[in-house]
Write a structure and sequence with these properties.
globular, 10 strands, alpha+beta, single chain, 1 helix, about 15% helix, 4-stranded antiparallel β-sheet
Length: about 120
């Protein structure tokens, strides 16, 4: 393989890897999602029908009762307390980071580690 072809292939691979590691942001009905290689943080608005598509999986805020948050992840309902507790749902790790009067912030992790 000529040197220029190898360099072009390396540059293409490096650009692809950089694109995979870059963060992305998306808006959904009543939600905002920010993702990186380890997972996504979804901010659901309260008082509206809030949903998001996270890593190809549909997620919806169903209810908030104090610090207990009910989410529907790919059709499976999970109740997750706010704080450090993580619940598994459809191969994803779900943690409620924050509950306020206006919003619920949820971390949905893939289990992949960066670095």
């Amino acid at each position: 393989m000529p040197v220029s072809t190898r360099m072009s292939a390396r540059a293409l691979l490096a650009a692809g890897a950089a694109a995979l590691l870059a963060a992305c942001t998306a808006q959904g009905p009543g939600s905002q999602t920010t993702c990186d290689v380890s997972g996504c943080v979804v901010t659901f608005e309260r008082g509206v029908s809030a949903s998001a598509s996270i890593l190809g999986v549909d997620a919806e805020l169903v209810a908030v009762n104090g610090n207990l948050v009910t989410l529907e992840i790919a059709g499976q309902q999970v109740v997750v307390p706010a704080g450090d507790t993580t619940q598994a749902a459809e191969g994803l790790n779900v943690t409620v980071q924050e509950v306020t009067e206006q919003q619920v912030k949820v971390k949905v992790a893939t289990g992949l580690q960066v670095g």
